[in-house]
Amino acid sequence: MEATAKAGLARTLDRATTVVAVLMSIYHLVACNINLFQAGQHINLHILFALVIVFLQAIKIKEGRPTWQGWCMIGLLAASIAVCVYIHFNYTNFMTALGAQPFDKVFSGVCILLIVLIATQRTWGWVIPVISVIALLYGYFGPYLPGPLFHGGLSFSRLITYVTTNFDGIYGMLASVSANTIILFTIFGGMMDAFGAIGAIMNVAMSASTKIRSGGAQVAVLSSGLIGSITGSVAANITLTGAVSIPLMKKRGYPAEFAAACEAAASTGGAILPPVMNAAAFIIASWTGIPYITLVFVGITPALLYYGGIALSVYIKACKLGDEKVRDETLTAFHSAFLNLLVFIIPVILLVVLMVMGESAQKSLFLAICCLALVGLIQQFVMREEKPLHAFVKKLLAGFENGGRTVASIAVVMACMGVVVQMMTATGLSSKISQFALAIAGDNLLVLAIVVALTCVLFGMGMPSASAYILAALLGAPALTTFGVPVVVAHFFVFYFAEMSALTPPVAIGCLVAAGLAKADFFKTCLISMRLAIVGFVLPFLFLYRPALLLQGTVLEWAWAVLMVVAFLFCFIVFCENFFRTRTTLWERIIAGAGALCCVLPFYALDFAGLALFGVLIISQGRRVRRERSLKQAE
């Protein structure tokens, strides 16, 4: 009886969450075309929806009733509704009293601030709320701090309204991006999942594994990249694709650590893969004023190089282990699997075309969502479902539900990070950190880049990609731009290192999840994943010295830069694996290491030396393979 009551209450809460998530998606689809409310009110409703979903999901049940923690979540849920409704209806009063701090404005601000901090802790852990509280304490205690940390300080009432009911901070730019763009992106991704796009991607990856050597491991590279671009979560991506790819790789003879590292590195790269590029791309566009479609085109070359590096590593590893093509008659034929996936590419192409034509991200995403809905509707009739319209509506609502549930956790963390951004801007801390980094670096761009990279990796540990980028952009990008680095280059530098923090110990959330699935050693997985994703750590530095990689130069400069990265990758991988077509000799390995070093250092004289060593390595391996074949034939 108790088990039935527990299941019944859990089912009721889940249904309530589903209803709120669907309503959230529908509201935002309407709001992106019709101005129902003022901008601040719209963001407030967005945060309200997110808080309700977060607290509904956080309610714990025991013996058929909520635990004391569950009752606390219910209380916070009620408080969220009460505070957000009050702020909504007093929006005009609060906006006309920007210079004043009446009691209700301050009290409402305190309540929404505490609620957002708790909601963020429930979804993302303690790191981000603690950073936000430290930022608030710095804003209040500034007059008592020594040296460069000193600032004029903010009174308690001014501090609270500054980050809440003045409609900055929690309601600032980051929350605006979440409420106007990211929500549409998550609806699009949720509908892709509901209509079967993710399954189609996995089918293509699995069927492609029969076409090439190392195909069993390339499943992880292909599927994780494509699905990661849709899901936007490293951990979720690894859980989804790793459940298939990791056992397949282990079955093919790959060590558990290599299988986990391959999955972690490929899933981490999903956030840098155009055209979606995770939520962080929308933040970069809003922050820098660079059109989103420009960022998409700028990001293509480095993303392809990143996945090319992982694919090449996997191929050489397969050759070393003797792994051949996957042979499984039960797999879907490649052309059939690809045709099933092709229909889902149509909305993505429409999205890109609309942005190239100059349409806003919101309108482009809305029309892409409509196109995807039409594709899904046609699909139900083509698949000859028994009740095609019923099946379509069910999948459409499931997509809306997925979108609402996904954006809820993003919305609360964006609101929480808005506090950090507002405090660092108001106190001038970000500019002080930039000045400090510049003082350390002096006139040396490389030293500055290393300092900024370490800062990005340090502050990005254990954080979602969007939050990691926000902190990295606040702390690192201004120093680079002050040094004269172009804005797009500076932001891609910190963006890449913020993403790579998912692979760097001691936290390495991507490696942690993958190692758990593979039952592999965590630190070995970290080391191998960093080696596989080496281009993700090298490219940001090359952005500074070879900006043509980000389309900041001529076509010839771009081609040369790509050639040098490819040569570096080949030499580096051969050096690490001690294998290419056959096992390398000591001299070949030395040549590979020297070639990699020459190709990555931005000096033209060394470029030619690196290419020469690259050629010598290929020729040497070719001769040795032919010699070994001749000896075998002679025997």
What's the gist of this structure?
The chain has 635 residues and is an all-alpha fold. The chain contains 28 helices and two strands.
- Low-confidence region ranges: none
Helical content class: over 70%
Separation of the first and last Cα atoms: 78 Å
Shape: globular
Structure explained in plain terms:
This protein has 28 helices and two strands. α5 packs antiparallel against α6, α5 packs across α17 and α9 runs antiparallel to α10. The chain is mainly α and 635 residues long. It has a two-stranded antiparallel sheet. Helices cover 78% and strands 1% of the residues.
List keywords for this structure.
mainly alpha; 635 residues; 28 helices
Secondary structure topology:
Elements: H1 2-31, H2 39-58, E1 61-62, E2 65-66, H3 68-89, H4 91-96, H5 103-124, H6 127-141, H7 156-163, H8 173-194, H9 197-208, H10 215-231, H11 234-251, H12 256-268, H13 278-288, H14 292-321, H15 334-356, H16 361-382, H17 388-427, H18 429-441, H19 445-460, H20 465-475, H21 477-482, H22 487-500, H23 509-518, H24 522-532, H25 534-545, H26 555-577, H27 586-600, H28 604-634
Antiparallel strand pairs: 1-2
